[in-house]
From TrEMBL, chain B:
Belongs to the ABC transporter superfamily. Keywords: ATP-binding, Cell inner membrane, Cell membrane, Membrane, Nucleotide-binding. It comes from the Bacteria. It comes from Caballeronia glathei. NCBIfam families: CP_lyasePhnL (TIGR02324). This is Phosphonate ABC transporter ATPase. One of its GO terms (molecular function) is ATP hydrolysis activity. Residues 21-260 form the ABC transporter domain.
Automatic annotation (TrEMBL), chain C:
Catalyzes the breakage of the C-P bond in alpha-D-ribose 1-methylphosphonate 5-phosphate (PRPn) forming alpha-D-ribose. InterPro entries: PhnJ (IPR010306). The lineage of its organism: Bacteria, Pseudomonadati, Pseudomonadota, Betaproteobacteria, Burkholderiales. This is Alpha-D-ribose 1-methylphosphonate 5-phosphate C-P lyase. It catalyses: alpha-D-ribose 1-methylphosphonate 5-phosphate + AH2 + S-adenosyl-L-methionine = alpha-D-ribose 1,2-cyclic phosphate 5-phosphate + methane + 5'-deoxyadenosine + L-methionine + A + H(+). GO terms for molecular function: 4 iron, 4 sulfur cluster binding; alpha-D-ribose 1-methylphosphonate 5-phosphate C-P-lyase activity; metal ion binding.
Length: 262, 261, 297
């Protein structure tokens, strides 16, 4: 099988900075996310990783730098200074954003089925029966009991709410999903199941994902590539197995050495 | 120096059709910041060419750096010096420089060209052994049914009991884990194979099966670099046995660094 | 109740139609904007009226801004000309503008209405003024005003479909029976005011100008004549209107919106046309069909 031509990155940042009154945040970030690849941003509290994620997902404006995204059919977009309607359209059709806390990513007054169906309704789906079928299908895919399609999110446990959030994000077939600590705060066994689900979905759906986490185990399990952040800057990046097996930077070595052995 | 190296690589890959791997002057020094910056030099300038149909077995004392060398070729370790070039006929230069490749390119290379069987099975938890073995095929576009069938056949050949196929390897014996590992590493038929003690925890019968598989791969045109401590296996699979020190050229810049194994 | 002559009740000391001329101009400017962008809510500086908020101050202000000496005004409240509100508002304009008033839809040039559209079809020469309590159709789904404005600006109306989806889940059908949101001119999601959904189809391609005033919420919007107005639904749960098994006990109509009245302590029920003028016209035509023809001649 001949190797295909060099694939261009989906999302590219150069010199991206977002600070708060000149302090904190993230500084001078260069990164590329390729189609079908999972990139984990690892760092401890205050490393600037969440700020970076929000800046990349256009949830907060950056101070400096460039940011571009290669769309499905409309060429490459300059994301800095993108108009609001286009930003919303992008968030709806090509991107997903999974919040750390499922509460922030779900609509709590409506049923699970409505939550999963809403992104489809937002882009014009108008057939009740088909919406329901799609919602039930996705519930099964994220290992939720589809018979519970009419229950409110509050009837589900934390881990299940997180799966519901994931289904709600993936139903529109996005190419790039941003995840902010998707397993934080969940019980260990629940985390494990969720990670397995994410791993399966990202590979089956050929999703590109940008995952922020403080947990190296999550990175090892899910990511092809890894970026280590400290004090707002990237101190090391590379293949996951390389960064974890042969860390170069002192901070990375500290992180790797600090992981509790099982 | 780089330009020259590139040019010589390009010529080499152009002239020698069977050349798969060209490592030149590979050095690796670990800097342990946690231990006050202590430096450990593991490789001092290893050079090796491997052609299709070759199985080069690295010999040498334990801790001499053989594993380290393999890991550098695979991109698991970052070489601190030297170049590694691997054949890539989709490019004009007919090779890819691993040492200068972006992580994204290394991922692609691993998917298309390079396979690695490590000593220890570091598998993703909670995935069945059958899925583990079929995954390399699925990720290359083979249909799931077909991939599963081929994985089953290989597991069968390696005498992995059928009842274990649906289970995750975490609870298997060392030998069983190792056989799953080997199956996963060999199933996709990569043109360049890096094998680190694949038969370490196997009994004689299973060692033979693995040796057969390696010979088959070799005869199908794979280029193989391996580490085998077992004499019998070595004899069966190797076309060449070399010591790491033979491959290492002493250069002035290497002396003076603390050497520990 | 028939027509009243103009000028018979005119009170002293009020500007024509109560509001000062500058205010009327301000409201007319808002109305022009509203007509230019059908279904879009235009803010306006709602004035203090001699009527508390929630009793029709918006409709009152719109009528006051557009009414002229030669107009004939009809005021209905849930179809009736005879409720306290309808009577008071009609008298208000008789006293401050001295205009002619009527109970007959066909004779009116302006009809101010609370919560119903007259059964009698309107013409290009007529204006319908709606009293609107809550102009924002997304109010219950998205409480943030800033977010609602963005949704309207971006025509981002998926949310209303979420509500309908939930309705079907819980009730088997879309549960909204009045104030059923409509999409005006394929662009803006609009609240038609709390008219029964039965009346929604009348809004579509209506020859009359439809103006909406919400006094408490300070918004004005409009649907120009012959504008497309569509009630939202799902493909497999299409919009449908209410139907009765009964006919009007007074005029026999099977096409109009019927009110159910409990007539005695035993709980006996009677169904009667909600639109009193429509009902009485039908009865008049039935009693003396020959006379009606003579009148017309």
């Amino acid at each position: 099988m001949t190797v295909s031509a060099h694939v261009a990155p989906l999302l590219s940042a150069r010199g991206l900075s977002k600070q708060y009154a000149g302090r904190g945040g993230c500084v001078e970030i260069d990164l590329d996310v390729y189609p079908g690849e999972v990139l984990c941003i690892v760092g401890e509290s205050g490393s600037g990783k969440s700020t970076l994620l929000n800046a990349l997902a256009l949830r907060t404006p950056s101070n400096r730098g460039t940011l571009t995204y290669r769309t499905r059919d409309a060429g490459t977009l300059d994301l800095i200074g993108l108009a609001e309607p286009q930003r919303r359209m992008l968030s709806r059709t090509e991107w997903g954003f999974v919040h750390q806390n499922a509460r922030d990513g779900l609509r709590h007054g409506v049923s699970a089925g409505a939550n999963i169906g809403e992104p489809l309704m937002a882009i014009g789906a108008r057939h009740y029966g088909r919406l329901r079928e799609t919602a039930a299908d996705w519930m099964a895919r994220v290992e939720l009991d589809a018979a519970r399609i009419d229950e409110l999110p509050s009837a589900f446990s934390g881990g299940m709410q997180q799966r519901l959030q994931i289904a709600r994000n993936l139903v529109t077939g996005p190419r790039l999903v941003f995840m902010d600590e998707p397993t934080a705060g969940l019980d260990v066994s629940v985390q494990a199941r969720l990670l397995d689900l994410l791993r399966t979905l990202t590979s089956k759906l050929h999703l590109a994902a940008l995952i922020v986490t403080h947990d190296i185990g999550v990175a090892r399990l899910l990511a092809h590539r890894l970026m280590v952040m400290k004090d707002g800057r990237v101190v090391e990046s590379g293949l996951t197995d390389q960064v974890l097996d042969d860390p170069q930077h002192p901070y990375t070595q500290t992180l790797v050495a600090s992981v509790l052995p099982v | 120096m780089n330009a020259n190296a590139d040019l010589s690589n390009e010529l080499a890959f152009a002239r020698r059709d069977a050349l798969m791997l060209r490592a030149r002057g590979i050095a690796k020094t670990f800097t342990l910041h946690q231990q006050g910056g202590a430096r450990i030099a593991a490789l001092h300038g290893v050079s090796l060419d491997v052609e299709r149909g070759e199985c080069v077995v690295l010999s040498g004392a334990s801790g001499a750096g053989k594993s380290t060398f393999l890991r550098c070729i695979y991109g698991n370790y970052l070489a601190t010096g030297g170049t590694i070039a691997i054949r890539d006929d989709s490019r004009e230069s007919r090779h890819v420089s691993l040492t200068h490749a972006s992580p994204h390119d290394v991922i692609r290379l691993r998917r298309t060209t390079m396979g690695y069987v490590s000593q220890f099975l570091r598998a993703i938890p909670r995935v069945s052994s059958l899925d583990l073995v079929s995954e390399p095929l699925v990720s290359r576009g083979v249909g799931e049914e077909d991939a599963r069938a081929r994985a089953s056949a290989l597991l069968e050949r390696l005498h992995v009991p059928r009842r274990l196929w649906a289970l995750a390897p975490a609870t298997f014996s060392g030998g069983e884990q190792q056989r799953v590992n080997i199956a996963r590493g060999l199933i996709a038929g990569q043109p360049l194979l890096l094998l680190d003690e694949p038969t370490a925890s196997l009994d004689a019968e299973n060692r033979d099966v693995v040796a057969d598989l390696i010979v088959e791969a070799r005869e199908a045109g794979a280029a193989i670099v391996g580490i085998f401590h077992d004499e019998d296996t070595r004899e069966r699979v190797a076309t060449r046995v070399v010591g790491l020190d033979e491959l290492t050229k002493q250069s002035p810049s290497n002396t003076g660094i603390l050497q520990t194994c | 109740m028939s027509a009243r002559e103009a000028g018979t009740e005119l009170a002293e000391g009020y500007n024509f139609a109560y509001l000062d001329e500058q205010t009327k101009r301000m409201i007319r400017r808002a109305l022009l904007k509203a007509v230019a962008v059908p279904g879009h809510q235009v803010p306006f500086a709602s004035r203090e009226m001699p009527l508390p908020y929630g009793w029709g101050t918006g409709g009152l202000q719109v009528t006051s801004a557009i009414i002229g000496r030669s107009d004939t005004l009809k005021v209905i409240d849930q179809g009736s000309d005879e409720t306290t509100n309808a009577v008071n508002i009609r008298r208000f304009f008789a006293r401050t503008a001295g205009v002619a008033t009527t109970t007959r839809t066909a004779d009116a040039s302006i009809v101010q209405t609370r919560h119903r559209i007259p059964e009698t079809p309107l013409t290009e020469a007529q204006i319908l003024v709606y009293q609107v309590p809550m102009p924002e159709p997304l109010y219950r789904l998205e409480p943030r005003v800033t977010e609602c404005r963005k949704l309207h600006a971006l025509a981002d109306y998926g949310l209303i479909n979420v509500k309908y989806y939930e309705d079907i889940v819980q009730h088997g059908s879309i549960a909204t029976t009045y104030d059923y949101p409509v999409l005006v001119n394929d662009r803006y999601l609009t609240s038609p005011s709390p008219i029964p959904k039965f009346d929604n189809p009348k809004m579509h391609m209506n020859p009359a100008l439809q103006l909406f005033g919400a006094g408490r919420e300070r918004r004005i919007y409009a649907i120009p004549p012959y504008t497309k107005v569509k009630s939202l639904d799902f493909e497999d749960h299409p919009f449908s209107v209410q139907r009765w098994e009964h006919q009007c006990a007074l005029c026999g109509s099977r096409e109009s919106f019927l009110d159910e009245m409990i007539v005695d302590d035993a709980g006996s029920r009677m169904f009667v046309c909600s639109d009193s003028d429509y009902c009485s016209s039908r009865r008049a035509a039935q009693d003396a069909p020959g006379d009606a023809a003579k009148e017309a001649a």
